[in-house]
User: Fold this.
Amino acid sequence: MFLVAGGGTGITGPAGLAGRRIGVSTRRGYLQVGSDALLRRLGVDTDGIEWVPMEPGRMRGNLSAGVVDAVAAPLPLPLLLERDGARVVLNLAELRASTLDVFVAGRADWIADNRGLTESFRAALHDGIRLLGREPELAVRAQERFARLSPELSAAVTVGTYIETPAPDQLDFWIELMGSAHLIDHPIAAESLLVAR
Assistant:
């Protein structure tokens, strides 16, 4: 995930995003909530940021036209924006915040009642993870085919790291993000979400 500022905005770093208009794919979605939380960790006052929801396909044109000052976007969009003269002001991976982009969860009673299905799904997921580990070019080809990325852009997109069990610090950060989006209204201990197999 990247925060990319328009070329004519004068924004050269994260602090310059305070009080600006930032395009996101959905209001209070992962890009907004994650960007807000990580900017706050860097000491940026995010209260004055106007988060502007827009279709990802309109981000490039809206940034060029000055509708927004910056956008929060995953690859490959930042690569295209840099070609237009925009500047990546924050690569959120540089913060070393290990975030959970996608994970599978279920209520403990449902998992217990559907143990066979749960284990079958887990086994299929791990088979896929092992396959990508052995043949990472499959991910590149899948991005070309299903995300319709050009071979050049597909090769530039980093394939995520797949893990079997999230670590407590990853869950803590996820809990922080969900709390800042007001999707969790009470404290949750990360350890309480991890169930031994």
